[in-house]
Amino acid sequence: MNYFVTGIDTDSGKTLVSALLCEALEADYWKPVQAGLPKDSDTVKSLLSNKKTVIHPEAYLLHTPASPHAAARIDGVNITLEHFTLPATDNRLVIEGAGGCLVPLNDRDFVIDLAARFRSEIILVADLYLGSINHTLLTCEALAARKLPVKGIIFNGESNPESERIILQHSGLRCLLRIAKENRIDPTTLSKYSDQLRSTLL
């Protein structure tokens, strides 16, 4: 089973979680749409210690740091779902979405439509800020409405037990991992959390 990493907002921590999954599973990494620099694939590569993960090139590499549909229009590019094909690999694949799940790719399709196209199990990343309960539960409703399989939630950032409790209660999802607010993210930090994550994915 491949995993599709999506978040409740742009800065939820999807790239960190994608790197954690790649390290825990020695899986390959692919970001179908990259809008703006630096590339998230470069960040993932810099954090990994294992030698098995392959970083696959983006299907669309856009120059403007904006929603994919807007960045594509600025770049004179037309994003279509039909253009996306999974990279050729015998390994498991971690796919990182762009922004939140309802970020538009074009006038019709959303980022989350990629998860459905690739038949991937979703891992939802939620950072805990004021308003994150609403954003997380709305995201869960959107995923449920599309009948998409969700492996669970990863909470990222400063802990808020009450927010976490109510989100898990109403979403019915399982918490896979809690990532504390770290002063530094490096391969050592990644290794610590990837060990924890590996056990919850089994």
Automatic annotation (TrEMBL):
Keywords, in A-Z order: ATP-binding, Biotin biosynthesis, Cytoplasm, Ligase, Magnesium, Metal-binding, Nucleotide-binding
Source species: Chryseolinea serpens
Gene Ontology MF terms: ATP binding; dethiobiotin synthase activity; magnesium ion binding
Compartments, as annotated in UniProt: Cytoplasm
Subunit structure: Homodimer.
PANTHER family (UniProt xref): ATP-DEPENDENT DETHIOBIOTIN SYNTHETASE BIOD 2, DETHIOBIOTIN SYNTHETASE
Cofactor(s) the protein requires to work: Mg(2+)
Class of the enzyme per the UniProt entry, highest EC level: ligase
Pfam family, one: AAA_26
Catalytic residues (positions): K31
Chain positions recorded as ATP binding sites: D11, S12, G13, K14, T15, L16, D40, E96, G97, A98, G99
Pathway assigned in UniProt: Cofactor biosynthesis; biotin biosynthesis; biotin from 7,8-diaminononanoate: step 1/2
Protein EC: 6.3.3.3
Signal peptide: none
InterPro entries, alphabetized: DTB_synth_BioD (IPR004472), P-loop_NTPase (IPR027417)
Family: Belongs to the dethiobiotin synthetase family.
Function: Catalyzes a mechanistically unusual reaction, the ATP-dependent insertion of CO2 between the N7 and N8 nitrogen atoms of 7,8-diaminopelargonic acid (DAPA, also called 7,8-diammoniononanoate) to form a ureido ring.
Record protein name field: ATP-dependent dethiobiotin synthetase BioD
Chief localization: cytoplasm
Binding site for Mg(2+): T15, D40, E96
GO cellular component terms given for this protein: cytosol
The keyword Signal belongs to this UniProt entry's keyword annotation: no
Origin organism lineage: Bacteria, Pseudomonadati, Bacteroidota, Cytophagia, Cytophagales
Catalytic activity line of the entry: (7R,8S)-7,8-diammoniononanoate + CO2 + ATP = (4R,5S)-dethiobiotin + ADP + phosphate + 3 H(+); (7R,8S)-8-amino-7-(carboxyamino)nonanoate + ATP = (4R,5S)-dethiobiotin + ADP + phosphate + H(+)
GO BP, sorted A to Z: biotin biosynthetic process
